């Protein structure tokens, strides 16, 4: 069969760049230098029919119990947000086997500053940066948001740029990690000036108990008058499929678009 057809280009082509180095971390007795990378999901901009508009940025932090992290683990699901108007950066950060607090949050904030410094290259609207994370990444996303306006964790390059974010999405997050490492409990650093925070938690989570984690953060946000949306999902365990259904993504997208 031979057929001539006409295709109307209404959707941008989405590209994935997986080896963008945003910083480095000195490891093992000051001898080994480890690159810190991020993976970027964004529209192609080479042709006239591809979009060149600046898009809001979603920074995503995968979990791993602070002992491991794979920034590319959730890329297939994150493409959904790129197709709906966001540049998405999934960010590598240090793990506790090689480092200690506050190096993890220093890495996250360095990545945010790097992305701001390259906003024109990546077509980012840096006035709208939402940070999201799952499990350990949920804690770091919350910590990044709750330390807006402070330079306590700003170390490294691009210090002329802000590491502040517009909002955070904490997905089955660890909230109080003082027993794991010498880091603040999120509920202890909430202030009336904290940015909006969404919390997603499974009622059947056997790893992070919503009663002692998500509930505590939500109560602190409510007490301080911070905008918060807290969703408790029936039948959902830690990292279950419930969190990655289109229905759940639509709820998250609505929150992000309202910022």
Question: Care to describe what's here?
Answer:
With 259 residues, the protein is α/β, with parallel strands linked by helices. It has a single domain (14-257), classed as 3-Layer(aba) Sandwich (Rossmann fold). 25% of the residues lie in helices and 25% in strands. It has helices at 28-31, 75-82, 103-117, 119-122, 136-146, 214-223, 246-257; strands at residues 14-27, 32-43, 55-61, 87-91, 124-134, 167-171, 197-202, 228-233. Helix 6 (214-223) links the parallel strand 7 and strand 8 (228-233). Helix 3 (103-117) crosses helix 5 (136-146).
CATH class category label: Alpha Beta
Low-confidence stretches: none
N- to C-terminal distance: 50 Å
Helix share bin: 10-25%
- Strand arrangement, major sheet: 1-2-4-3-5-6-7-8
- H-E order: EHEEHEHHEHEEHEH
Keywords:
single chain, 259 residues, alpha/beta, Rossmann fold, 25% helix
Topology summary:
Elements: E1 14-27, H1 28-31, E2 32-43, E3 55-61, H2 75-82, E4 87-91, H3 103-117, H4 119-122, E5 124-134, H5 136-146, E6 167-171, E7 197-202, H6 214-223, E8 228-233, H7 246-257
Parallel strand pairs: 3-4, 3-5, 5-6, 6-7, 7-8
Antiparallel strand pairs: 1-2, 2-4
Tell me briefly what this model is:
With 259 residues, the protein is α/β, with parallel strands linked by helices. The chain contains 7 helices and 8 strands.
């Amino acid at each position: 069969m031979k057929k001539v057809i006409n295709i109307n280009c209404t959707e941008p082509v989405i590209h994935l760049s997986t080896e963008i180095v945003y910083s480095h971390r000195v490891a093992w007795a000051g001898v080994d230098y480890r690159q810190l990378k991020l993976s970027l999901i964004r529209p192609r901009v080479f042709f006239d029919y591809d979009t060149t508009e600046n898009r809001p940025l979603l920074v995503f932090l995968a979990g791993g119990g602070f002992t491991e992290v794979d920034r590319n683990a959730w890329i297939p699901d994150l493409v959904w947000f790129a197709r709906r108007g966001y540049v998405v950066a999934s960010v590598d950060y240090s793990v506790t086997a090689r480092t200690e607090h506050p190096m993890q949050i220093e890495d996250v904030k360095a990545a945010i500053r790097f992305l701001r410094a390259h906003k024109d290259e990546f077509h980012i609207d840096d006035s709208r940066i939402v940070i999201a994370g799952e499990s350990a990444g949920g804690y770091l996303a919350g910590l990044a948001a709750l330390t807006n306006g402070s330079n306590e964790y700003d170390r490294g390059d691009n210090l002329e740029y802000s590491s502040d974010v517009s909002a955070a999405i904490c997905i089955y997050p660890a909230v109080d990690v003082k027993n794991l490492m010498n880091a603040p409990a999120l509920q202890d650093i909430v202030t009336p000036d904290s940015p909006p925070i969404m919390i997603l938690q499974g009622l059947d989570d056997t790893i992070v108990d919503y009663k002692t984690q998500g509930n505590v953060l939500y109560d602190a946000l409510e007490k301080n008058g911070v905008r918060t949306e807290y969703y408790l999902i029936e039948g959902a365990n830690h990292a279950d499929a419930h969190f990655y259904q289109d229905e759940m993504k639509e709820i998250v997208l609505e929150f992000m678009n309202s910022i």
